[in-house]
Every structure is written in C-alpha cells, then in structure tokens.
Specification:
Blueprint (H helix, E strand, L loop, with lengths): L10 E4 L2 E18 L2 E6 L2 E6 L7 H13 L3 E2 L5 E3 L7 E6 L21 H17 L3 E4 L6 E16 L5
Parallel strand pairs: 4-7, 7-8
Antiparallel strand pairs: 1-2, 2-3, 2-4, 2-9, 5-6
Helix pairs in contact: 1-2
C-alpha cells in the first residue's frame, strides 16, 4: 500500500483541525446484512465503525489498527478493563461508515465534506481490515457503499471513541 497518497483514518473537522476517529463497541455478538443476506458475523469482539477522510494517511491506518487490536476494553478476573480483543480471542466486525464524518455544528443537516471519495476510501478501508488480520484477528466486514443493517449486542454497554489527536 506504499503507493497510496494517504492512508486510512476517521476524521471530523473541528475548528479547522482534522482528527482520526473510530467508534468502537464491545459486543457479545454482531452481524451485518445487505438486502436481507448476512454478509458478516462475529461472536464476542469489537464492532468498529469507521470512515475514511480525504486527507488520511498510512500512519492513521497503522494507528487505528494498533489501537483497536490492543485496546483494553474487556474485563479481567477482577472486573477491570485489562484485556484486549486479542487477549480474549475475539473478532472484529469492521463497518465502513462515512457518517462518522458528520459535522453537525451548523444548521440541522450534517455535512459530510470531510469524507473521502470512494476511489480513495475503498482501498484504505480494506487496508485497515488487512492490518487487523495481520495481527491475527478474525475480521468480518460489511459491503462498502451498500445500505447495511448492523445488529450489535453491545456488551456492557461499552462504546468508545478513538481519536489520533487524543482530544478526548
């Protein structure tokens, strides 16, 4: 993927600063369907909703795949968040979601101008999946650009936001 002018990430504009973001949900099970057909399913693991921004880079792909794979959001024997999806043998359901870029600061309709065009977004989205698989994770995906039905049994519930600029 060295020939890519950028990489995978999740960005939202905020006061002119672009940030890489992912919405991560811990799940006891999850699935994604397109036109009534299940195209991806996991048991215990993480559902990762991601959007690719127009100016994202390879470093963003590496950052987000490392963060997701090693994020300690599963309990240990003492009930503390000390185990990662790798530690628990969980899977990843990776869902492309350009609405992660929704900017709702003005008006009543979100703006999605920060989202990448499909010719950039598709290879970068797929690259994140490949990076996660390279870490030994089972990764299921939806279908890029399709209308998807995602069912998540959010375990906890636990929903986390990952931001490469660490603003939260």
């Amino acid at each position: 993927m060295g020939g890519l002018r950028g990489g995978v990430g999740w960005t939202v504009q905020n006061a002119g600063v672009r940030k890489v973001r992912a919405v991560v949900q811990r799940a006891s099970q999850a699935s994604v369907s397109v036109d009534g057909e299940v195209v991806g399913r996991i048991g215990r693991g993480l559902v990762v909703f991601l959007g690719v921004g127009g100016d994202d880079g390879e470093k963003d792909a590496v950052f987000i795949s490392d963060k997701v794979a090693l994020l300690r959001c599963f309990e240990d024997g003492d009930g503390k968040f000390n185990r990662s999806v790798l530690d628990v043998g969980g899977g990843i359901l990776l869902i492309s979601q350009f609405t992660v870029h929704g900017d709702c600061r003005k008006g009543r309709r979100p703006s999605f101008t920060a989202a990448a065009r499909p010719e950039l977004a598709v290879p970068l989205y797929e690259h994140v999946g490949d990076l996660l698989r390279g870490k030994g994770l089972v990764v299921e995906t939806g279908r890029f650009g399709a209308h998807m039905n995602v069912e998540v049994a959010n375990d906890g519930p636990v929903t986390l936001l990952v931001d490469s600029k660490r603003v939260f």
